[in-house]
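User:
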Amino acid sequence: MKSGLRNTANAIAYESLRKDIINMVYKPGQELNVINLAQVFSLSKSTLREALLQLGRDNLVDVFPQKGSRVSFLNKDIIKQERFMRLNLELGVISSFMDKLEANDSDREILVTKLKSIILQQHAALLSKDIVAFLDYDDEMHHLFYSYTDNEWIWNILSSHTGNEHRIRILSHKDLNIIKNVEEEHNILVEAIQNKDKNKAIITDRQHLKKLDKEMDLLEKDFPEYFSSLSK
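Assistant: Predicted structure:
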């Protein structure tokens, strides 16, 4: 939870709204009416206003004093910065992950089994066309790299500061070809881990994480109503 949230009600409001925004339940540009939100979440208007202010600091909500609030449009500049942070931190983590497994075959077998299990669950989400669940399993897989290397704090920082990246991933995964490619990349990554191929694991993870950079312009053409006109 964010340190600025002072009590449980504020935390619930913040986390609930944030989850719905990053999963595109509330679309970019959509008005967020405090009275309606208070009814939906059974919380006070003051609690919702504080949550909206916090989400504004996360670049997920635009707050207009005395006027109202709306879900922020997708800003490519912000998304690129979030992805830059994710890419550079994760490549270091995956390198440490492979180093730690180098002399520990029992851990390797356990982790590969867990990763393959996650991929199977992700495939089930793909078959049921559940994009949110598919991405949840995607995050669960990558989270494993951070937890095994004792980088849980870094994962939490990334999770709390990459909400816009998550929104663009939700949008990109509406394309069946893209989502199938993600699954294929995960299988290649796990195979590299199983085969102790550190170089291939790093290259595969880099390609996996950078791919969305190439897709962003296409997504803007397909969904222009979701993007900020100020984006580059």
